[in-house]
Amino acid sequence: MKRNALFAFMMVLILSVATACGDAEESGAESGETIKIGVLASLTGALEAYGHQTKKGFELGLDYGTDGTMEVAGKKIEVIFEDTETDPKVARQKALTLLEDEDVDFLVGSSSSGDTLAVTPLAEEYEKVMVVEPAAADSITGAEYNDYVFRTARNSSQDAAAAAAAIAGDGVKIATLAPDYAFGRDGVSAFKTAAEDLGAEIIHEEYADAAATDFTANIQKIIDSDPDYLYVVWAGANTPWNQIVDMQVQEKGIKITTGVADRATLPMMAPLVGMDGFTLYYHTLPDNEVNDWLVEKHQEEYDEAPDLFTPGGMSAALAVLEALKQTDGSTDSKELIETMEGMEFATPKGTMTFRPEDHQALQEMYSVTLVESDEHDYPVPELKKVLTPEETAPPIMNGK
Q1: Cα 392 from Cα 293, distance rounded (Å)
Q2: Predicted structure pTM score
Q3: Where are the domains of the chain?
Q4: I want to staple 51 with a disulfide (CB 3.0 to 4.6 A). Which of 111, 148, 230, 329 is the partner?
Q5: For 266-281, b where at least 16 C-beta lie within 10 A, e where not — what string?
Q6: Is the separation of the CB atoms in 54 and 134 below 8 Å?
Q7: How far apart are the first and last CA of the chain?
Q8: What is the topology classification, in CATH, of domain 34-154+285-363?
């Protein structure tokens, strides 16, 4: 009898332990031991160079932010990259794949403002936090704002504040040239406001097809308007610089100013040496430990310095990691939103802060002069002044 009772007790104990282990395993699976991040980027198409820069930066950001473990708050990180092909319809479809088939916890992207605006409503619909990088259109955190969207990228108004600081003043006449889509129109609108606040007059706005390769007619209209300055807003490989030079715009007494973009555009800007302008990043400009690490690691991994949008990709990764550290790994969107509003986090551009009212990251910009380089066969931006996050803070445009 005693043996039978002991046997029965042991069987109950074994079953209890097995059941407890099963419950623990099921609980662990339900809580999600892997955090999935879906990254949308232009890996092909007109902005593919930007997409690849963002991808490299995002991967390096995860490496830096996790000390190479690819884990945060005890959970593994899985990243899925999808190519938007720089096409809003494709971007939306790829986002749906990430949300429905992959069940990602975060969205990140994209390279194009058009692609991004096609996706941000899905973040709200599926209640997933989306970190926007590097799309710059003001409307993303303005007219098309929703609570699930946070942006590490600078927006057009931050570009505009930096650009206006370089040239605008009482009585200065300015013409603009930009691509005819959200990025270009938002960029000109923001610049116009900033320049007029400083006393300048915008006397002509010229918009070219975003895929144009011939800018002759556009540039001639600008010449005919006889401005003191031409402010150019452009993104992509089909830049207007060669034709601006060929049509001798500067020789006609019109000074050029623009944002200094990625390295691929710098050889084409050789005739603009001496130009005062701005940039959102060049690897020699920021002075902080995160940027030092990025420059060294990027050189080691890719045998070149990081480019224009590499630090943005890194910043997006660091923002996601900081939010997860503060929530102890929780991917509950309401908790994440509460955490990320007002959150400060270290980036290659110094400390960024997500402004609570519109989730735009306030950040450094750089006032520069384009100078000849002893190291390269193209001109490079030389720092005139670091423009602080407070100096370039854009207006809140979402009605809040």
Answers
A1: 25
A2: 0.84
A3: 34-154+285-363, 157-279+367-387
A4: 111
A5: bebbebbeebbbbbbb
A6: yes
A7: 77
A8: Rossmann fold (3.40.50)
287: tokens are: 């002075």
In the numeric block, the tokens 């997500």 are attached to 354
| pLDDT, one tens digit for every residue, the chain (400 residues) | 444 444 444 444 444 434 444 443 333 333 459 999 999 999 999 899 999 999 999 999 999 999 999 999 999 999 999 999 999 999 999 999 999 999 999 999 999 999 999 999 999 999 999 999 999 999 999 999 999 999 999 998 998 889 998 899 999 999 999 999 988 998 899 899 999 999 999 999 999 999 999 999 999 999 999 999 999 998 777 889 889 989 999 999 999 999 999 999 899 888 889 998 999 999 999 999 999 999 999 999 999 999 999 999 999 999 999 999 999 999 999 999 999 999 999 999 999 999 999 999 999 999 999 999 999 999 999 999 999 999 899 999 998 7
Task: Return the axis-axis angle of helices 289-302 and 310-326, rounded to nearest 10°.
Answer: 120
For residue 326, what is the enclosing H or E element? Answer: helix 310-326
Residue 19 burial by CB count (10 A; 0-12/13-18/19+): exposed, middle or buried? exposed
How is domain 157-279+367-387 classified at the architecture level of CATH?
3-Layer(aba) Sandwich (3.40)
Contact 106, 128 (CB under 8 A): yes
| Separation of alpha carbons 180 and 397, rounded Å | 21
Q: Which of 202, 44, 41, 10 is nearest to 115 (CA)?
A: 41
What are the structure tokens assigned to 180, written together? 């005819």
Domains 34-154+285-363 and 157-279+367-387 belong to one CATH topology? yes
CA–CA dist 306, 112 (Å, integer): 20
CB 46 within 8 A of CB 210: yes
Q: What is the CA radius of gyration of the chain?
A: 25
Residue 392, Cβ neighbours under 10 Å: how many? 25
Cβ pair 253, 352 in contact under 8 A: no
Distance, in Å, from the CA atom of 340 to the CA atom of 347, rounded to the nearest integer, reads: 15
CA distances from 27 to 32, 119, 371 (A): 9, 32, 60
Tokens of 351: 């400390």
**Euclidean distance between CA atoms 263 and 138, whole angstroms:** 25
Phi, psi of 144 (to 5 degrees): -100, 20
Q: Work out the number of other CB atoms within 10 angstroms of the CB of residue 89.
A: 12
- CA–CA gap between residue 327 and residue 333 (Å, rounded): 10
